[in-house]
């Protein structure tokens, strides 16, 4: 939880041990160490986050308000910093076992222009696998695809060329069976991505979200093989310029990534060449059990994201996107989510951006809603925590 720093705490923090490279060393609410190891300088990235970055000279002590700056490193992928929102609806009634009933709900189209006018440059649009292909390995359903694509096209035209993430929201499952682990085969899984990639191969603003929140996998290495199969299928369909989002395990956990799926996903290759268009897909909520089901936030996740950033930098300067995070319209979330997103923005060379959960077809009573009110005003969480950290 972010705490406000008082004078005595600030004085006491001077006695803390030196912070390692890439660790936090200051910012609003920071009560830990404020000096860096030799060879690193405590650098102000924004009011909420000072970080030990490589630098020459003696270690530097930070204080809130310091004007030391090193600028933001350019992303290795060439992506601009992405800030946006999930537009839920076509995923409604997908259960965590990958089962589905219903028809989905179209996200209100007016929301795209509303958010784009405020600086949003990425929309994540979830969908149920069973809506897109009602049978495994079957042809994409023309009626549903017309609905989905109409939404995608509205999103693409809603501002100055936003990116759109196509998010397969099935938890690595189809009706209870895990992909390549007792459920659908890799061939059945990749059939969907082959067809979608063929439809969108001419638009470089499309991003392919391979799968939402794989969890409770029997074999993480087997899942990584399934991810590689999806990447191969997308490229083979002619979609060679688009970014592909690679999900890990444990609900796409940002915390688990460096020790679970991350080391294996680093080895996924891109038939189009290089790895700059393969972005890791991570999630992290801010409530007490990381479930995204409580209105209050108990952490800013800066410690978790700091570990993730260090892992990615140490392994080829790879990038990840925080495609799900969020909180309730409560003071604890105004503070914590703002600090989290400020950290993401300050580390945009490694963290490509974020999409907050959620707007779209959710009404304004949903516990994590950022859906605009009927009069066009925004939720306080959006105005206080999200909007200040948009690109």
TrEMBL record:
Keywords recorded for this protein, A-Z: Carbohydrate metabolism, Cellulose degradation, Glycosidase, Hydrolase, Polysaccharide degradation, Signal
Stated family: Belongs to the glycosyl hydrolase 5 (cellulase A) family.
Extent of the signal sequence: 1-17
Stretches assigned to the CBM1 domain: 17-53
EC class: hydrolase
Listed name of the protein: cellulase
GO molecular function: cellulase activity; cellulose binding
EC nos: 3.2.1.4
Catalytic activity field: Endohydrolysis of (1->4)-beta-D-glucosidic linkages in cellulose, lichenin and cereal beta-D-glucans
Superkingdom, natural source: Eukaryota
InterPro entries given in the database record: CBD (IPR000254), CBD_sf (IPR035971), GH (IPR017853), Glyco_hydro_5 (IPR001547), Glyco_hydro_5_CS (IPR018087)
């Amino acid at each position: 939880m972010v705490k406000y720093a008082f004078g005595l705490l600030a004085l006491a923090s001077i006695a803390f041990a030196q912070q390692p490279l890439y660790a936090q060393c200051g910012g609003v609410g920071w009560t830990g160490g404020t000096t860096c190891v030799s060879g690193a300088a405590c650098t102000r990235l924004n009011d909420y986050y000072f970080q030990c970055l490589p630098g020459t000279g003696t270690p530097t002590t930070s204080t809130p308000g310091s004007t030391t700056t090193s600028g933001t490193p350019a992303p290795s992928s060439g992506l601009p910093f992405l800030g946006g929102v999930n537009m839920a609806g076509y995923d409604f009634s997908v259960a965590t076992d990958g089962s589905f009933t219903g028809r989905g709900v179209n996200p209100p189209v007016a929301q795209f222009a509303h958010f784009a006018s405020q600086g949003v440059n990425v929309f994540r649009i979830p969908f149920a696998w069973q809506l897109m292909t009602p049978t495994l390995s079957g042809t994409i359903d023309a009626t549903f695809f017309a609905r989905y694509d109409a939404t995608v096209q509205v999103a693409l035209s809603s501002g100055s060329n936003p990116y759109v993430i196509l998010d397969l929201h099935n938890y690595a499952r189809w009706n209870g069976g895990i992909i390549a682990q007792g459920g659908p085969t890799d061939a059945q899984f990749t059939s969907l991505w082959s067809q979608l990639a063929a439809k969108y191969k001419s638009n470089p603003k499309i991003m392919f979200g391979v799968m939402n929140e794989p969890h409770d996998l029997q074999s993480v290495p087997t899942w990584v093989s399934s991810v590689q199969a999806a990447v191969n299928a997308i490229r083979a369909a002619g979609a060679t310029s688009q970014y592909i989002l690679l999900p890990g395990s444990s609900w796409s956990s940002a915390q688990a990534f460096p020790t679970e799926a991350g080391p294996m996903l680093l080895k996924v290759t891109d038939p189009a060449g290089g790895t700059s268009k393969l972005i890791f897909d991570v999630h992290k909520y801010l409530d007490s059990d990381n479930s995204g089901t409580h209105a209050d936030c108990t952490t800013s996740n800066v410690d978790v994201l700091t570990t993730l950033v260090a892992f990615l930098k140490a392994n080829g300067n790879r990038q990840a996107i925080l495609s799900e995070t969020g909180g309730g319209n409560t003071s604890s979330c105004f503070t914590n989510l703002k600090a989290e997103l400020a950290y993401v923005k300050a580390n945009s060379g490694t963290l490509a951006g974020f999409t907050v959960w959620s707007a779209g077809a959710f009404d304004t009573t949903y516990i994590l809603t950022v859906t605009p009110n009927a009069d066009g005003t925004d939720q306080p969480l959006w105005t206080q925590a999200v909007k200040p950290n948009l690109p």
